[in-house]
Amino acid sequence: MEWSILEQYGPSLLRGFGVTVLCWILGTIFGMALGLVIALVQRYAPRFVGWIVQAYIEVIRGTPFLVQLFVLYYGGPLIGLRLDAIPAGLLGLTLYGSPYFAEIFRAGFRAVPHGQIEAARAIGMAEPTIVRRILLPLGLVSSLPALVNFSIILTKETVILSIITVPELMYQVGRMSAETYRYLEANLVLALFFWVLVEAISRVGRRVETRITKHLIERT
Amino acid sequence: MQASAVEIRKVNKYYGPFHALKDVDLSIPPGKVTCLIGPSGSGKSTLLRCINFLEEYDSGEIRIDGQLIGYETPGRKMSGRKLREMRRSIGMVFQQFNLWPHMTAKENVAEGLIRVRGLSKAEAETRAAEALTKVGLADKMENHPSRMSGGQQQRVAIARAIAMEPRLMLFDEPTSALDPELVGEVLNVMKTLASEGMTMVVVTHEMGFAAHVADQVAFMEKGELVAVDSPQGIFHAPKDQRIQNFLRTYHERNSF
Amino acid sequence: MFSIPVFLDSFEPLIWAARYTLLISVLGIVLGLVIGTLICAARLSSNMVLRKLAALWVSFFRGVPLLVQLLVFYYSLAVIGIDVPATFAAVFTVGICASAYISEIWRGAIAALPKGQAEAAVAIGMKPSDVWTRIILPQAVTISLPALINELILLVKASSLVSVVGIMEITRASQAQAATTFRPLEVYIAAACIYLIINLCLSALGRYLEHRTAI
């Protein structure tokens, strides 16, 4: 492994990693936001809206992420959606993650003992207030582990963005290996890098989870 | 069939720093019913489970018909095979029944006969049917546990244990997980077994059963064997303050 | 705007390409089941070395994105000089990746069994191997069924990634189709429909099996 290569490509690899992190963070945040909206819509909206939303969930969960990206990036222009690679990738990640986040939130809501909601209704609390003060806080606490888990899964999905030319880490590694002909080494190092990264994030995630859960439970 | 005798001598058990059994000495005479009573956490279930070495005791001896269980010599554990051999003659009934949900009642009872005693499937099923008839469940043989009440499931569990023709039966709070109206049917089966001369060790909260069916009652608290006596001695003339307190709390909570 | 004829015409070549998708997914999960069972056994064994190695295996193949695994394996073969059909390499990679997830599915199912089940078997003196094959495994398989079907669905979707090593499954075929028709929107949506149909069938199968094996 020639270290001069790292010197030469270091900056672009670093930029690529920056794009990976950016896509991951924004994709997670937007995906969670959209997922929360979906979960609340499914709980409170009229039946046929719920069906439409459910259809969306089935479609996203039943089709490969890559194909979804192709539809957005390559198919989009035909209906006037002309996005650059990064915005398309972000949109794709958000749409892809939202149904999974929605399911996690729904499970979290279901885990809130119904008696708690009934108690709030019994004292005459308005539904939106119940959502804000009882359902969300308690539901989010039980959802936390699953949320952390899935966002870790999203870090791995970011490499698929390279296929629609989003200049994240794998894309940069691809360019580097094409120019240096060191395909195997480059991808092997990439694999090890992700392994360490994901393992590290998982461990940190678990510790953060326990701390936040303890903290939230003490406050509620 | 010879009923077994159990000798428990100076048995100690630790869970980490927690001293769960403290120098317990107890003789279980053959063909008789011994009940273990006491407050929660007293170590009664732990002691019971040490008898068939489902829990490992740390020091002391437990001998069944003179043979040490769990250890070849003190400090050297018994081989898996020898332990299994000894367990074949010991029947155990658990608080949570522990029936295997993917098998019917008959299959549950026959399984041990086939896998452990090596009987043919036909022979095993015949014996299983007999055992189930004995506990009064001849009509439920082909049912899965999910289709039976708690009392019926526990009776199947008893049938499963007695089909193996044990010389010793261990009962770990057999009725604690049952709705009150189902307790009677299980106790009746146990009374029948007792009248047939089976050596039984029963951990229970059913004081009525202990008072009327047991030949000896052992009271434990905090890992210690406080007293062993006839039911008369424990229930009607207890000498130890701890037993008196326990009985008083029991009466307060259960009489109306 | 949206050309229905192009959309409908795309189905034929894509369905033809679907046989590779199904081949890779099915063979992948079979391989994953076989290896996954071994890894799970290692995870639960009393041998510490085996346990650690299995834990590393699971951590690696769950931590590295499948796309990277595919490229690493593909280029490894090129470097070693083994001339292996790309499909074979793809099945192998997908299967190994799946084995890590399946091992954890087994582990979770076994852990979910009440401890008393095994205890009752041990108490009547059953051999450990019998306790496993007669009591623990049958129930573990039943408990795992939904998760395993889910894994199969994930593999069907993951198979789209093998397009990057040139295998003519649905995604690659749709790229080729889009290039000739210049209507990527209709073609990719058609591809999505085919995946959706496959996965909806698998979900229905999963629900049917769950219903049938409910104890």
From TrEMBL, chain A:
The chain crosses the membrane at residues 16-41, 48-73, 85-102, 134-154, 180-198. One of its GO terms (biological process) is amino acid transport. GO terms for molecular function: transmembrane transporter activity. The keyword Transport applies. SUPFAM superfamilies: MetI-like. PANTHER family: GLUTAMINE TRANSPORT SYSTEM PERMEASE PROTEIN GLNP (PTHR30614:SF20), MEMBRANE COMPONENT OF AMINO ACID ABC TRANSPORTER (PTHR30614). Part of the binding-protein-dependent transport system for glutamine; probably responsible for the translocation of the substrate across the membrane. This is Amino acid ABC transporter. It comes from Paracoccus kondratievae.
From TrEMBL, chain B:
The keyword Nucleus does not apply. InterPro entries: AAA+_ATPase, ABC_ATPase_HisP-typ, ABC_transporter-like_ATP-bd, ABC_transporter-like_CS, MetN_ABC_transporter-like, P-loop_NTPase. This is ATP-binding protein. It is found in: Cell membrane. Belongs to the ABC transporter superfamily. GO terms for cellular component: plasma membrane. Pfam families: ABC_tran. Coiled coil: none annotated. GO terms for molecular function: ABC-type amino acid transporter activity; ATP binding; ATP hydrolysis activity. Its main location: membrane. Keywords: Amino-acid transport, ATP-binding, Cell membrane, Membrane, Nucleotide-binding, Transport. It is a peripheral membrane protein. PANTHER family: AMINO ACID IMPORT ATP-BINDING PROTEIN (PTHR43166), GLUTAMATE_ASPARTATE IMPORT ATP-BINDING PROTEIN GLTL (PTHR43166:SF9). Residues 6-247 form the ABC transporter domain. Signal peptide: none annotated. SMART domains: AAA.
From TrEMBL, chain C:
Its main location: membrane. GO terms for cellular component: ATP-binding cassette (ABC) transporter complex. The chain crosses the membrane at residues 20-42, 54-76, 82-102, 188-209. Pfam families: BPD_transp_1. It is a multi-pass membrane protein. It is found in: Cell inner membrane; Cell membrane. One of its GO terms (biological process) is amino acid transport. GO terms for molecular function: transmembrane transporter activity. CDD domains: TM_PBP2 (cd06261). InterPro entries: AA_ABC_transptr_permease_3TM, ArtM/GltK/GlnP/TcyL/YhdX-like, MetI-like, MetI-like_sf. PANTHER family: L-CYSTINE TRANSPORT SYSTEM PERMEASE PROTEIN TCYL (PTHR30614:SF0), MEMBRANE COMPONENT OF AMINO ACID ABC TRANSPORTER (PTHR30614). Belongs to the binding-protein-dependent transport system permease family. HisMQ subfamily. This is Amino acid ABC transporter. It comes from Paracoccus kondratievae. The lineage of its organism: Bacteria, Pseudomonadati, Pseudomonadota, Alphaproteobacteria, Rhodobacterales.
